[in-house]
Specification:
Strands 3-4-9-8-5 form a 5-stranded antiparallel β-sheet, with helices on one face. The protein has a two-stranded antiparallel ribbon with strand order 1-2. Strands 6-7 form a two-stranded antiparallel sheet. With 142 residues, it is mainly beta. The chain has one domain: Pnp Oxidase, Chain A (Roll). Strand 6 and strand 7 form a beta hairpin. This is Putative Oxidoreductase. Keywords: Oxidoreductase. InterPro entries: Flavin_Rdtase-like_dom, NADH-dep_flavin_reductase, Split_barrel_FMN-bd. It comes from Pseudomonas amygdali pv. dendropanacis.
């Protein structure tokens, strides 16, 4: 997920173990942040976000955004997109979204984003996988 900026320029974000494609027309995706997270109110109020499909080299970023607290980009490379989303470098893909709908999901919100931009790296990178509590890379398929 992407870092978002609060009015005091503090970054927030989450590491989600899963997100899902929802619709092709319109292009929609969804993920489910915990209402208790520092990131949830910022996502709700900012109305935009970026989903990062992390590369196998981004375990530091994954753990940083999985931690508690608000300023999670300390020491992590990022830049602002044309749509105003803070973006991490080296991701496998980035999906920039506007908040389309939000639904109650118990102790989690169900956030549905309308896809506004897809960013792919100039050079292919190996995606990160998460399985049984561990992060890593799949072997190359030849």
């Amino acid at each position: 997920m992407s870092p978002r900026w609060t009015p005091r320029a503090i970054s927030v974000g989450i590491t989600a173990s899963a997100f899902s494609a929802l619709s092709i027309d319109p292009a929609l995706v969804l993920f489910c942040p915990n209402y208790a997270s520092d990131t949830y109110p910022v996502l709700r109020d900012s109305k935009k976000f970026a989903i990062h499909l992390l590369s196998a080299d981004q375990q530091v970023e994954a753990y940083a955004f999985a931690s508690k607290g608000k300023d999670k980009t300390k020491g992590i490379e990022w830049h602002l997109s044309e749509l105003g989303n803070p973006l991490l470098g080296k991701a496998t893909a980035i999906i920039e979204c506007e908040l389309w709908r939000e639904y109650d999901g118990g102790d989690h919100a169900i956030i549905v984003g309308a896809v506004k931009n897809l960013i792919l790296p100039a050079v292919p990178v190996t995606p990160m996988v998460y399985h049984r509590g561990k992060m890593g890379a799949l072997p190359a398929i030849v």
